[in-house]
Amino acid sequence: MQRIAIFILTGWLVAVAAEAQSRRPPIDTTVVTRHTVTVKGQRIPYRAEAGMQPVWDEWGRPIATMFYVYYEREDVQDRARRPLIFSFNGGPGSASVWMHIGYTGPRRVRIDPEGFPIQPYGIEENPYSILDVADIVYVDPVNTGFSRILSDTVDRRQFFGVNEDVTYLADWIAAWVSRHDRWRSPKFLIGESYGTTRVAGLAGALQERHWMYLNGVILVSPTGLGIERDGPVGQALLLPYYAAAAWYHRKLAPELQQRDLEALLPEVEAFTVEEYLPALVRGGFLEPERRREIARRVATYAGLSEEVVLQYNLAVPRNVFWKELLRDEGFTIGRLDSRYRGIDRQAGGERFDHDPALSAWNHAFTPAINYYLREVLGFRTDLEYWIFGPVRPWNREGNETGEQLRRAMAQNPYLHVLVQAGYFDGGTDYFSARYTLWQLDPSGKLRDRLFFKGYRSGHMMYLRDEDLATANDDLRAFIQKALEAARTPARY
């Protein structure tokens, strides 16, 4: 009896140990599969490498491990001429899932043509992928996706902050490039949302710490990059986004509603810079008549009542706008994509209960990425794939990533920058993105290498088929332009 009990106990301990082992991340490993995809009518063979590469401390000991997926086109003769793109999403704390199976990768999440979720969940070929022109590495920073800190004794603070994030990722990228023999390849970074803060800083860190000079940086739905825009400036910049959202929901006056969106927005932008911002700067000393006139114009463009605009001293906060625009219909609108409508417990109040856009995306992308990584790419693990991982507290002090990017451009005449933004994005609105681009280089000497593209979608503008096709074509054109510039000796 005692032997049976010992045997059962031993078996149980072995099972527990095996389960614990299966939940530990592999520190340094790869799984390779081969596939094809049709892009622009051309069948492209490619190699997919799903792997883990360590983050090392100063003594060369692994302290964390990071998950990545690398797509390499196989029928390429000269890898030295083949562009290589590192792709990051934001959060901070978000995995690379969104752009991976939503935008540039060879497989995309199944959604409807306007970008709204449908079931059954799954993936399909992405006929707009940029794999025809570039190899791509999708990177999950520490504590996102399958990436993990390896021990409770490791100091978390070295990963979770603006500058901390940039420092360890620059080291990791340099090691990855060496391992994969890609030093001669033209190199690009693409980041979305907080990922734009990340790649802007990386452009400087890679150049200054590792002598790795980039050809291009793509900022998708960018943050402020540490560029000051508080107070009246930040408040005024929201109005063109308000106008776009109101236009989409048909809340504008007939004479404005019947105009095409991209014909209307320049008028709102001009009013914002030339009249609205100066009025906000005057604050409580704005003349009463002028105050009423500005309130009328703001209400007209934003699809709100003059009373609401005056209640907020001409500057309606975003959270109020999301609640107010469709209040009479009993709906809220989405933060990250204001085409989405939400239902709150009550119509009153100033804040919505949840962002209907993010909720919709989470339930479409989560099952799709888990199926794809585990069953299609063959990366088998009991680890949970963290769409959003635990990275708090995040140290936001010392954010000079915009200046790091400007300095990298000034020192590297071949470095180009593209901004992509959705008109219906209320989280990182498109006109603030324009402002960031304008302020990135106050001298104006770099403006011929700074580009902006807008789309009729939200934060993830690539979820809508039409914008997915256009945005990827814009990436192709940007990559080609940067490569052509690199073939010509540059002199300031």
TrEMBL record:
<keyword id="KW-0325">Glycoprotein</keyword>
<feature type="signal peptide">
    <location>
        <begin position="1"/>
        <end position="17"/>
    </location>
</feature>
<keyword id="KW-0378">Hydrolase</keyword>
<keyword id="KW-0732">Signal</keyword>
<dbReference type="GO" id="GO:0006508">
    <property type="term" value="P:proteolysis"/>
</dbReference>
<dbReference type="Pfam" id="PF00450">
    <property type="entry name" value="Peptidase_S10"/>
</dbReference>
<keyword id="KW-0121">Carboxypeptidase</keyword>
<protein>
    <submittedName>
        <fullName>Peptidase S10 serine carboxypeptidase</fullName>
    </submittedName>
</protein>
<dbReference type="InterPro" id="IPR001563">
    <property type="entry name" value="Peptidase_S10"/>
</dbReference>
<dbReference type="InterPro" id="IPR029058">
    <property type="entry name" value="AB_hydrolase_fold"/>
</dbReference>
<dbReference type="GO" id="GO:0004185">
    <property type="term" value="F:serine-type carboxypeptidase activity"/>
</dbReference>
<keyword id="KW-0645">Protease</keyword>
